[in-house]
Amino acid sequence: MNQELNALRDQIDTVDRQLVGLLAQRLALVANVGEVKSRFGLPIYAPDREAAMLAKRRQEAEACGVPGDLIEDVLRRVMRESYSSENDSGFKCVNPQLRPIVIVGGAGQLGRLFSHMFRLSGYRVEIIERDDWYRAPELLSQAGMVVVAVPIDVTCEVIDRLTMLPDDCVLVDLTSIKSKPLAHMMAVHRGPVLGLHPMFGPDVSSLAKQVVVCCAGRDESAWQWLLDQMRIWGVRLHRVTAEEHDESMSLIQALRHFSSYVYGWHLEEEAADLQRLLALSSPIYRLELAMVGRLFAQDPALYADIILSAPRNLEMIRRYHHRMGEAIRLLEAGDREAFIQQFHKVADFFGDYAGQFLRESKMLLAQAHDSRHHESL
């Protein structure tokens, strides 16, 4: 038995080595693609090309008896690495005549990411931090664009100090709230204004497929080049008003972060055995626990500022608390039918999205299961 297994395993090892060689060849080709895209100013993310390629590979795989989901999983992972590799080629500069870009808070994590992307695109970037504000008058007076990338709690204060910008300078902020910063930018600067909210952390390896929310301020024609530049980086832009953005963020960010914060707090107060919880958890519960734990590996000031950034967030949390109380009363009454009825009502609200989320979550859970190491008992 061992001889037969070893012979088959040797053959599998040979095939695996061939796969490694093919992947290296593919990444080398991707590097060439990145160089061509850089020269011609093409976005690194081409959704139509990606969808068509995946559909074709699925069809070819299934014709060979290989599950379509398998080849799609493999290719999506390879493409994620490919997008990161394409960054090495740099990007075409959409606005080469632009005067220097000044990033206030450019030494922070998000500021460093955008500094890096602008420099990869051929722009001159200057950075201002708290300790070198003495340089601000000179740098700001010559800026073609100023990007504010400072913590939420000081964003408006910093914006109010930007009184020396040229009239044609584009003023942008990267804050996760939009109404107040946008209003302050409009008040302090009479030139072009744009509010941005990158919906990703500074540790991403590529901006391909990452979402940036855009809230228009003033003089769109003066900052359209910036949107075009981000599209070349592979960014997916989503335009909403500042009010729509902040209303959505109460649910997307403030409420979710608060829920994770309280759940983590509850686990700590209950002295939960995290190792045992992980060992006993199926992939979905492990992912949920990971998302809670992820919060506590990061800067607490950031999450405090997000949750406390607007009165509407507290109002939303209060409504959530009230509905949780209503749900508890159903349980206290032992009202099984009322619980099921409410469940159906919520299911109707989700509609077709429920099925979509079920399919998406199955893929995530499969990946989480594959990466899990099981100890033998």
UniProtKB/TrEMBL annotation:
Its main location: cytoplasm. It comes from the Bacteria. This is T-protein. The gene is tyrA. It holds the Pfam family CM_2. Residues 1-90 form the Chorismate mutase domain. SUPFAM superfamilies: 6-phosphogluconate dehydrogenase C-terminal domain-like (SSF48179), Chorismate mutase II (SSF48600), NAD(P)-binding Rossmann-fold domains (SSF51735). It is found in: Cytoplasm. Keywords: Amino-acid biosynthesis, Aromatic amino acid biosynthesis, Cytoplasm, Isomerase, NAD, Oxidoreductase, Tyrosine biosynthesis. PROSITE patterns: CHORISMATE_MUT_2 (PS51168), PDH_ADH (PS51176). Pathway: Metabolic intermediate biosynthesis; prephenate biosynthesis; prephenate from chorismate: step 1/1; Amino-acid biosynthesis; L-tyrosine biosynthesis; (4-hydroxyphenyl)pyruvate from prephenate (NAD(+) route): step 1/1. The lineage of its organism: Bacteria, Pseudomonadati, Pseudomonadota, Gammaproteobacteria, Aeromonadales. Residues 99-361 form the Prephenate/arogenate dehydrogenase domain. GO terms for molecular function: chorismate mutase activity; prephenate dehydrogenase (NAD+) activity. It comes from Pseudaeromonas sharmana.
